[in-house]
Design a protein that fits this description.
The complex is a heterodimer of chains A (about 90) and B (about 425). Chain A is an alpha+beta fold. Helix content of chain A is about 15%, strand content about 20%. In chain A, strands 1-4 form a two-stranded antiparallel ribbon. Chain B has about 425 residues and is α/β, with parallel strands linked by helices. Chain B has 17 helices and nine strands. Chain B has three domains: about 220 residues, NADH-ubiquinone oxidoreductase 51kDa subunit (Rossmann fold); about 80 residues, Ubiquitin-like (UB roll), CATH 3.10.20; about 100 residues, de novo design (two linked rop proteins) (Up-down Bundle). Classes of the chains: A alpha+beta (about 90), B alpha/beta (about 425).
């Protein structure tokens, strides 16, 4: 995945914005007790294992899905889901 | 002003050739007291700690001997960079049941460890200095710390704190949790780092006691001397706890890069005497004897065999024992030793333990339907707050590969006779009786 830093003097060479949601979804496995809200609200990146705990896809989250991700994070009753910048 | 380390070595006794860590021990059961320690190693060059030691650590290429093999110079520089007061912890908890090297250092040549701890405290401007060890070593080490204080060796106060007798109590975040008055179980670090945010929020160094003993030698003889043994990528020596080769478990010191063939004096015929060898510990992996014979002593070589050097555990498993029974007992032990905090680890390790016990002791219970053990390993990998489930997954995967013929035999003909042999791999109940 190519990423470009758009800052200062080289900003003018970027013709199309390559804006990426450069964050990952991270679950705190100690806080999580498998309520399943995240998988319901954000099935594009979260599936449940057969014990009912979320498996989070580490693929980058595209802009179009950012709102879903934020909603899942906000809805976690255990506050166990986080959006974190710069992982991997 | 920078004191060149070369100048201080001139006043020191001659640097040891080989062995290093164990060179002051005249016999295996001797104890090196402070006087003998200073005679053998010379004074502790604390004066050079602040200025030159970080450079020497970088030059030495020393990596952490607790199991993570992280470059020590890099770790210390990270801590020194912020300019904040730090907390420095010597980790001698040694939760790995088949490891005895830390205990050997702390009981037989403790001053080498404490030299390293004192150097870390001076270099990293520590406001709190802790020696974290199992209960049975606390009293002895209190006396050692007291002797040094009376002898004017350490410039800082060293606290001796008891590590609970459990597999995970030495895990880095568990150590910090314990020193923050919590239980000694791992915490979820996320993207933060213990190095930035550890005990009471302060930058914290948690370093294995053997690593600190190497630091004590590097401070005296320099990074180049350290590199005179070992290889370019894996310099120096390491302690190994070897079980199953001789009549009792032994701790040996070996130069990194040495061939296991030479180290264990194994002949090709020995391939028939053993099922395989466990490298690294219960979060490491089994390797076949032919692979072990060709393997060199380094974390990279062990990784190529899908194993790890871990904390230097080597167990040769004689054919008088059932490899599946041994593996099943270890997985059950690891399941019981889990902190019980993360769902996938709680459920995954319980299922894995049950499946391995089935394979070893009651394969008929599967009724031709062998449970998906490998899928289960993949499912728990990376799903915990710490690496406990990942280690068990590696251990189980390696058992299925190295002992695949035995798995087949158990499934076809039922358990072998060797399942009744008493366990070789220790699985202590951690109530003090088994060790």
């Amino acid at each position: 995945m190519e990423t470009r830093r758009v800052s200062g003097q080289d900003a003018h060479v970027v013709k199309a914005p390559v804006a990426r949601w450069r964050v990952n979804l991270v679950v705190d496995p100690i806080l999580c007790d498998g309520r399943g809200v995240c998988a319901e609200l954000f099935p594009e990146r979260v599936v449940m294992d057969h014990w009912g705990y979320p498996i989070v896809d580490q693929e980058e989250i595209p802009t179009g899905l950012a709102e879903h991700a934020r909603r899942a994070v906000a809805a976690c009753p255990r506050l166990a889901l986080h959006l974190v910048e710069g992982r991997r | 002003m920078r004191a060149p380390l070369a100048a201080s070595t001139a006043t020191l006794p001659q640097a040891p050739g080989f062995p290093r860590l164990l060179s002051a021990l005249p016999s295996p059961d001797s104890v090196v007291d402070l006087e003998a320690h200073l005679t053998h190693w010379g004074d502790l060059p604390l004066h050079s700690a602040r200025s030159g030691l970080l450079d020497e650590l970088d030059a030495s290429g020393l990596r952490g001997h607790g199991g993570a093999w992280f470059p020590v110079g890099t770790k210390w520089r990270d801590l020194a960079r912020g300019g904040r007061r730090t907390v420095v912890v010597a980790n001698g908890s040694e939760g790995e049941p088949a490891s005895r090297k830390d205990e050997l250092l702390l009981t037989h040549t403790p001053h080498l460890v404490l030299d390293g701890l004192s150097l870390a405290a001076a270099t990293l401007n520590a406001s709190r200095v802790v020696l974290y060890v199992p209960a049975r070593q606390v009293n002895g080490l209190h006396r050692v710390v007291h002797d040094r204080r009376r002898g004017g060796i350490d410039r800082v106060e060293i606290e001796v704190i008891e590590a609970p007798d459990a597999y995970l109590s030495g895990q880095e975040s568990a150590v910090v949790h314990a020193l923050n008055d919590g239980p000694a179980v791992p915490t979820f670090i996320g993207l933060r780092s213990i190095r930035d945010h550890g005990v009471r929020g302060r930058p914290t160094l948690v370093q294995n006691v053997e690593t600190l003993a190497h630091v004590a030698m590097i401070s005296r003889y320099g990074g180049l001397w350290f590199r005179s043994l070992g290889t370019q990528d894996s310099p120096g020596t390491m302690l190994l706890t070897v079980t199953g080769r001789w009549s009792e478990p032994l701790v040996v010191e070996a130069p990194l890069g040495a061939a296991f063939r030479d180290l264990l004096t194994l002949t090709p015929q020995d391939a028939d005497r053993y099922w395989g060898a466990l490298l690294g510990g219960y979060g490491g992996g089994w390797v076949s004897i032919p692979d072990l014979l060709d393997c060199r002593l380094s974390e990279e070589s062990a990784r190529q065999l899908n194993s790890s050097l871990g904390a230097g555990v080597v167990v040769l498993l004689p054919r008088t024992h059932c490899p599946l029974a041994e593996s099943a007992r270890v997985v059950r032990y690891m399941q019981r030793q889990g902190a019980g905090q993360c769902g996938p680890c709680i459920h995954g390790l319980a299922d894995l333990a049950a499946h391995l016990e089935g394979l070893a002791f009651n394969p008929a219970s599967f009724r031709r339907h062998v449970p998906p053990i490998l899928e289960l390993c993949n499912l728990i990998d990376g799903r915990g707050a710490c690496r406990h489930p990942d280690g068990v997954a590696r251990f189980v995967r390696s058992a299925l590969v190295v002992f695949r013929d035995e798995v087949e035999k158990h499934l076809r003909h039922g358990p072998c006779a060797a399942i009744k042999t008493s366990a070789l791999l220790p699985c202590p109940t951690h109530d003090g009786r088994d060790r």
